[in-house]
């Protein structure tokens, strides 16, 4: 998938290994993971894709504009958490995510403290109401949801594919959710994407 992303997008998007977040939660591995992350130079990137596997379930964390000031209007630091299983309660990951992000800032010697990190919005776009239109016309936004019990990994790949295709040059909270509206995906496209995934040979 990464090889299929255009070179210009690869200059401002990077990704973490799919096991880094889980390894970070183990005290014996935390230092090594932060060293690996430092080599990624994420504060010079617009978007960082962080696959998360916890409790045998995959979700996708997207770090947006972490190198920018929290007061920025054009490039708003924020985090998106996309989950294909709403009942898994993605918000339960928030304490670990905020600790993870705080430690990344600390490892880079940046001035942001715990209080500032707590103010970075963590958006979990399960259902998003559009308040800029009449109440009678309110529409909801929902990320694609899995139908079976073992599809979450495929959905994370699909979220990465969709986000990279549509990610705006500058992510501002004022224009959120940008391309992630009701029609940002279709079940037909989702099924076609899954069919293209190569099965893993055991």
From TrEMBL:
<dbReference type="Pfam" id="PF02902">
    <property type="entry name" value="Peptidase_C48"/>
</dbReference>
<dbReference type="InterPro" id="IPR003653">
    <property type="entry name" value="Peptidase_C48_C"/>
</dbReference>
<keyword id="KW-0788">Thiol protease</keyword>
<feature type="domain" description="Ubiquitin-like protease family profile">
    <location>
        <begin position="1"/>
        <end position="163"/>
    </location>
</feature>
<dbReference type="InterPro" id="IPR038765">
    <property type="entry name" value="Papain-like_cys_pep_sf"/>
</dbReference>
<keyword id="KW-0645">Protease</keyword>
<protein>
    <recommendedName>
        <fullName>Ubiquitin-like protease family profile domain-containing protein</fullName>
    </recommendedName>
</protein>
<comment type="similarity">
    <text>Belongs to the peptidase C48 family.</text>
</comment>
<keyword id="KW-0378">Hydrolase</keyword>
């Amino acid at each position: 998938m990464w090889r299929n992303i255009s070179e210009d997008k690869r200059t401002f998007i990077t990704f973490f290994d799919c096991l880094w977040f889980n390894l970070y939660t183990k005290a014996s591995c935390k230092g090594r993971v932060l060293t690996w992350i430092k080599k990624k130079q994420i504060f010079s990137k617009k978007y960082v894709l962080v696959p998360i596997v916890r409790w045998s379930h995959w979700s996708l964390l997207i770090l947006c504009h972490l190198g920018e000031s929290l007061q920025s209007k054009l490039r708003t630091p924020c985090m998106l958490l996309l989950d294909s299983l709403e009942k898994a309660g993605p918000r339960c990951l928030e304490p670990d995510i905020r600790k993870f992000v705080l430690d990344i800032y600390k490892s880079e010697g940046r001035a942001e403290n715990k209080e500032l990190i707590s103010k970075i919005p963590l958006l979990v776009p399960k259902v998003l109401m559009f308040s800029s239109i009449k109440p009678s016309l309110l529409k909801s936004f929902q990320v694609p949801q899995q139908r079976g019990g073992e599809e979450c990994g495929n959905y994370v790949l699909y979220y990465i594919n969709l986000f990279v295709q549509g990610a705006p040059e500058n992510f501002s909270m004022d224009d959120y959710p940008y391309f992630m509206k009701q029609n940002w995906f279709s079940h037909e496209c989702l099924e076609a994407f899954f069919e293209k995934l190569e099965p893993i040979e055991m």
